[in-house]
């Protein structure tokens, strides 16, 4: 008998960011029934290694059984690892890839996670909020909901986020809700490309 079959347990630090967009920690079998009810189309894993049948057979089988697209974006382990010298465990190419998935309705509903649902996910979501014209105060207040503190490196990473974002034809309706086209076109730090333009390339620190 499946001991998890009658439980509805969200992943650690689970939250709905926007309609059909969710964040949290690495899903465990106890979370699968809860996640299934979200009718996810995509799971984005911000982890050091991809999820495979060999590395995590239960998670891998869950996405297969529920026809979920599993997308891995490589990140260093939080708190160290091979990219420790970068001060933060991700770079801007990771953020851009994640953002372009999150704002594309073809991937919704979408769940994005790192290992513990804290620093890496929070950095990406902070940059999403910057894309959506949130103020720095609001961005970092939300950040602190999911982390114990915010250090200088994390704050600087978000404040210095500059990139070219490929805006999909079928972008989510909430991304610039209430803002005029002229305002979006003149974002102070980000450049937007439509689906007929070239993709971003070599966006880095």
UniProtKB/TrEMBL annotation:
It holds the Pfam family Y_phosphatase2. SUPFAM superfamilies: (Phosphotyrosine protein) phosphatases II (SSF52799). Residues 13-170 form the Tyrosine-protein phosphatase domain. GO terms for molecular function: phosphatase activity. This is OCA6 protein. It comes from Cyberlindnera jadinii (strain ATCC 18201 / CBS 1600 / BCRC 20928 / JCM 3617 / NBRC 0987 / NRRL Y-1542) (Torula yeast).
